[in-house]
Amino acid sequence: MKVATFNINNINRRLPNLLRWLRAAKPDVVALQELKATDAEFPITAIEKAGYGAVWRGQKIWNGVAILARNAEPVLTRTELPGDRGDHEARYIEAAVRGVIVTSIYLPNGNPQPGPKFDYKLAWFARLKRHAKTLIKQNLPVVLAGDYNVAPTPLDIYPTKSWDMDALIQPKSRSAFASLVAQGWCDAIRETHPEKRIYTFWDYKRNRWPRDAGLRLDHLLLSPALAPRLAKAGVDKTIRGEDGASDHAPAWAVLRDR
């Protein structure tokens, strides 16, 4: 079972790129972020024609998350992260696919920091950790997939000081990610590539893609019940170089059969 996460950065604008990648990579489950489309604007006809069922939660202009399943219909379990009834941003969706719970997470960016946006990021992280702990206690096979907007360590960002004030690499952001993983989650990419610089995001500005000046922001965390099934993981980097590409590339993990 191949599970992927992909910040598509506007699903309708990048739809040709997405469909080409689905045909080539054939992921069984895909968590998408930054749909930048309302529920009604989600291109379900094209997705179904490509052989995927889908559940999604859209939002006008910003955010938006979805889960696709190849030759299957995801069973929707949640459309929002618990813990704040006043938070109406479309940043979390959760579904069961072939016996595995898969999320699509679009964690807040947090810039500029310090300030209310960074406070929201940390509060959202705290809610995620509470929910994640519940999933572990239930001994469920879970993939917490998504764009966490955190480069967890210096190995996850190209050598530079230009991001030092950015919310993506602040000590509090990294500490929040580390404390989540410490619950018992397995970082699939880092588990299979412990010392390798692997990136999933290259900003459009300052020629960062041609220079391979990237960050690893997109993660697949496997619950203790699922981690033993991890076979391999990686990033489909070349899609970032296509015309009209998202500024992210898909990260993926392959799970052995039970």
Quick overview:
This protein has 258 residues and is of the alpha+beta class. It has one domain: 4-Layer Sandwich (Deoxyribonuclease I, Chain A), CATH 3.60.10. It has helices spanning 15-25, 44-49, 116-137, 171-181, 188-192; strands at residues 2-7, 29-33, 52-57, 65-70, 75-78, 92-97, 100-106, 142-147, 186-187, 218-222, 230-235, 251-255.
Explained architecture:
- It is built from five helices and twelve strands.
- It has 258 residues and is α+β, with helices and mostly antiparallel strands.
- The chain has one domain (2-255): 4-Layer Sandwich (Deoxyribonuclease I, Chain A).
- The strands form two sheets. It has a six-stranded mixed β-sheet. A six-stranded mixed β-sheet has the order 5-6-7-8-10-9.
- Strand 1, helix 1 and strand 2 (29-33) form a beta-alpha-beta unit.
- Helix 3 (116-137) runs parallel beside helix 4.
- The longest helix is centred in the middle third of the chain and has 22 residues, at 116-137.
- The radius of gyration is 17 Å and the shape is globular.
CATH fourth-tier homologous superfamily: Endonuclease/exonuclease/phosphatase
- Assembly state: single chain
CATH-defined fold name: Deoxyribonuclease I, Chain A
Distance between the termini: 10 Å
The share of residues in helices is 10-25%
Uncertain runs are none
Question: For the report, how would you describe the main beta sheet?
Answer: 6 strands, mixed
Radius of gyration: 17 Å
**The CATH class:** Alpha Beta
Order of helix and strand elements from N to C terminus? EHEHEEEEEHEHEHEEE
CATH architecture classification: 4-Layer Sandwich
In percent, how much strand structure appears in the residues?
Answer: 15-25%
Count of discrete structural domains:
1
E-strand count? 12
Please report the number of helical segments.
Answer: 5
Q: Structural class, judged by helices and strands?
A: alpha+beta
Q: For the residues shown, what is the average pLDDT?
A: 98
The main sheet orders its strands as 3-4-2-1-12-11
Given the C-alpha coordinates, what overall shape results? globular
